[in-house]
Each structure stands twice: as C-alpha cells, then as structure tokens.
Amino acid sequence: MQQPNATLLITRPEPSGADFVLQVISALGHPVPTILSPLIAIEPVDPTIEVMPAGLILTSAHGVDAARRAGLPKGMTAWCVGDRTAEAARVAGFDPISAKGDSSALIRMILDRRPEGPLLHLHGAHKTGDVVEGLTAAGVSCYGRVGYRQASVPLTQQARFALSADKPLVLPLFSPRTVSILAEQGPFDAPLTVVAISEAVANAAEILRPVRLVLAEQPNGEAMCHATRDAIDAISLASGP
C-alpha cells in the first residue's frame, strides 16, 4: 500500500471538517496525516421572521439549524443546495428537495418548479451568490434572513508550523471567505496543492501561490472528496516509495 507523503490540512468549521476527513480516509482506503484548523466558527443568530414562509431555501446545514431554532413547522418544504443539506433538513423534520449542486443549480431547480411563495432563505452573514436576488428577479416571491454568523478564527500552532515547513500539504477549500481568512495569515512556504470546490474559490486561491490547483468536477462534497483523494495519491506516487 502506497503511504501518503502529504498532510491533509482541513480548515472547514466543525463538525464538517472532521466529517470530511472521514470521507477522504474512506475513499483512500487508509489513514492520512491530518491537521484540523477551522478558520470559521459558526455563531447562531435568531432570525426575525415577520411573514410565515410557504417553503425554505437552505444552502447549508447551519441554515437548517436556524430554521429549527426559529420554530418553523415540521413538514415544510425545504429547497436544498445539495444532498448533505437535504439530509440535515430531513433529520430536522422538514421535507427536503435537493438540487445536488451549487447555488446556481438551486436557483434553476426552483425556477423550473415555480413553488408557491414566499420562500425564506436562511443564510450566513457572509454568503456566496445571492439566491434571493436571482429568484426575485425571475419573479419568485422570496426573502432572506441571517441565521448564523461565520466568525474568523486564527490558524492553530500545528497548522502554522506545517504551512512554514517543506512537506507537501493538500488543502481543500470550500469558500472564498476561507481563502481570504487564510491569506491574511500568510504568506506560507509549504508546497500547497489546493482543491477548490468552484471556479470562484479557485480564482480566490491564486493568492496562496499553490504549486498545484485542482478544481472539483462538481461543486459538492462528493466531488471534493474524490478530488482530494486523487491529489493525495498523486503526491504519493510522485514522491515514490
């Protein structure tokens, strides 16, 4: 068995970061050295909901948590960006429909089905892509409320050491905001292989000066897992036994 010669650096908020590591290990079929250094801490916000929505728009599991805290009725239709968000919505008692993609795929799905409004998008204080704006412009009744904040967090000492060393690091990145928080704490000397979930993240990640930049085939967790696995394997093969 080819042992990994790279370290996996995970900057996602918990518990998403640890969950992603388990997915990568399962895909690899063996352990990989891993550093967990979340750069974002999720802070709940109690949204003010003046108008009861006919359905929800959810772009993360944190939005699901906000919907639950707001006491929205179980069984309400939840239009979800992807399968993991849809599963979180199902567990919370909502009736999820997954777009199996990114915010653009979510907008297309809702426009195709034209559900009765108003729809409520519970999102973070920092968001990528304005779902409400896109839907409103197309004639769908909807509004948005902040359901959580994404506070920036400094790198751990272990992560700082790894980023200043010469061992290859594989760095999956899921949002431009994470790239921005990381870049503010650089520059870094370690040879970075960045795995980006989208073109927007890939473009933002250029500031990190990676030795290799990989774009996931689809903007979802499964594609990110496969791309991360392949990046780790490629470094191991290039390094030899």
From TrEMBL:
Residues 34-224 form the Tetrapyrrole biosynthesis uroporphyrinogen III synthase domain. GO terms for biological process: tetrapyrrole biosynthetic process. GO terms for molecular function: uroporphyrinogen-III synthase activity. InterPro entries: 4pyrrol_syn_uPrphyn_synt_sf, 4pyrrol_synth_uPrphyn_synth. This is Uroporphyrinogen-III synthase. It comes from Flavimaricola marinus.
